[in-house]
Amino acid sequence: MAFDLDLIKEAYKNMPGRIEKAREIVGRPLTLAEKILYSHLDEGDPTKEYKRGKDYVDFRPDRVAMQDATAQMALLQFMQSGRDKTAVPSTVHCDHLIQARVGADKDLQEAINKNNEVYNFLESVSNKYGIGFWKPGAGIIHQVVLENYAFPGCMMIGTDSHTPNAGGLGSLAVGVGGADAVDVMAGMPWELKFPKLIGVKLTGEMSGWTSAKDVILKVAGILTVKGGTGHIVEYFGPGAESMSCTGKGTICNMGAEIGATTSLFNYDTSMATYLKNTDREDVAELAESVREHLRADDNVYDNPEKYFDQVIEINLSELEPHINGPFTPDLATPISEFAKKVKEEGWPQKLEVGLIGSCTNSSYEDLTRSASIADQAVSKNLKAKSEFTITPGSEQVRFTAERDGILQKFDKMGGVVLANACGPCIGQWARHTDDPEKKNSIITSFNRNFAKRNDGNPNTHAFVASPELVTAMAIAGDLAFNPLTDSLTNEDGEEVKLDEPQGIQLPSDGFAVEDSGYQKPAKDGSGVDIKVKDGSDRLQLLTPFDAWDGENLTDAVLLIKAYGKCTTDHISMAGPWLRYRGHLDNISNNTLTGAVNAYNKETDKVKSQITGEYGAVPDVQREYKAKGIPSVVVGDHNYGEGSSREHAAMQPRHLGVRAVIVKSFARIHETNLKKQGVLAVTFDNEADYDKIQEDDRFDFVDLKDFAPDKQLTVEIKHKDGSTDTIKVNHTYNENQIKWFKEGSALNLIKKIYAN
Fold it and tell me: Is the whole model's pTM more than 0.70, yes or no?
């Protein structure tokens, strides 16, 4: 039985009429993305055509999902909304706070002991406000959503950038900041600029070592980390039809690495099969009844260039396995060229650790394909030369894999099964190493590989590949090993070659689980007390941000001019800092500590304009805050790429940063800044970035006239008395300007409900 079946019935009941109305209005066939967008308008039936990449549109998502690290701040904000229950079905998933140390059972128990205060808070808030609660160990949010909540044609948002994983089941699922989730849970519409569309036509069929992972690794190489920004990526074609549902999920999951709003596939037989195998036959039957509306119109597939803003074609029969990295997920190299590149670039050839799993590749199929390689290591008398870890995606997957003897194959190979959680993928990894600063190489089946992402070591060269390729390379212990062509020497001195991986899409005996980890909320939460300890260093109730005083922002100092890539990991690191995700003041002590200062090329070392001395970024900013001095952050392209974490916007706001001026923003981070009342603008002339000097001060001379589609003027005052006047652009609409004026979007919500 599916969750929220009445919701799904209602969505499918409204869909045909709304799609037909939209088709009449736009006067042409519709893509799948457009069908879902137009059938989830806040206004109900469509009344006008929306311009891609231009019009802001209000939507009504079907549901919200939150992981424990981001849920803390989202729920702390929701508690201020005035609602006594969420307006849409919502869930919390405890997957981020479990650190990988020695193995699943001990790590899970240690996490419960260390984070009990946070788990109790999340459980109590969920119970009070009608939110489904998935306990620690239940699994990673995206795999659990795929198994239980996603459905074809659904629109959902989640407080994690890899929410698009649900696109593997035909859902239009978008990663957002917590403030967006609060809007929807509070019954407000969710605003999004109507996305542009990229079509990816898949022909042929995969075989051998090539997997779904290689599709997105290839696409990342084509589009780069910002090529999908402002776009939905829609996959179609005979190659798409030949893939498993969880393989599709892998592709959609990593669409976050190209900046895409989301990615999705049309409804097909593989999705129907997956729904039935996850005990949702009723959803499959409902989907079949509206099947024609859960895919693009035929004309779109026949002539994709007419209906998408960009079209990419990939022949799966010719696609090689790829390895992406290091330090960025879009540096794509086919396996046939990788060994040469390792030597040319001087990357550490010795492979120290192979890690499989995470939200991207932790399905039953992924584990079986990898286990077929692990099994060969044992049968061919090969000993793994690298440390090897396995992270199942959910308790259902883990339990079933153990029942079917899959996990035992990893154990015989020498692998360590970790808890059903994010672990090393997000820096929650107590890595076993003699020299934590040593230049070294690891390879994972995860999604992100920014510097310091996995283990905090800037010298770790992290590469991304399919789980079966990771398993093979962990056996070899050699980054230059190509399992398609190379042999290995076994313990008897014999030359042996690994056979192609063999996988099973779904368990022949069905999925099984003793305790899924789900906890249903109270029907009436009015008597439930929310658990927050007095004086806690983990949780802190929020104080609303101050509203704008209506005056021009003047004499703001430069806090930092960030050089090069500045992701949300650089702005608000994860790893050990996850413990403070519910305490805004404490976690603000990591603000921008990973960003590289353009003037000295160092991290966490900026000049104070009060003392003239250099200090840690948060310390210098706290000095400014104490003296009431506003500050500005300057950045490069795609500023704020990566995780959806709104802390990267809330922390600077809390510390007194008033504006961020960059060459370009990543979508989610720009929205998060707007939601928290920070002025987010871009250089009209990118070369003006070079005019910014270390001791500069900024006057926003016409902020009082802040209006949509109107540039702002900034006067930059240099220490020598000279000035530069520049123009900056913004994407604020009327409603978003209200957020700025009120001090935050949440302040506006409270004002609306108060009236």
Answer: yes
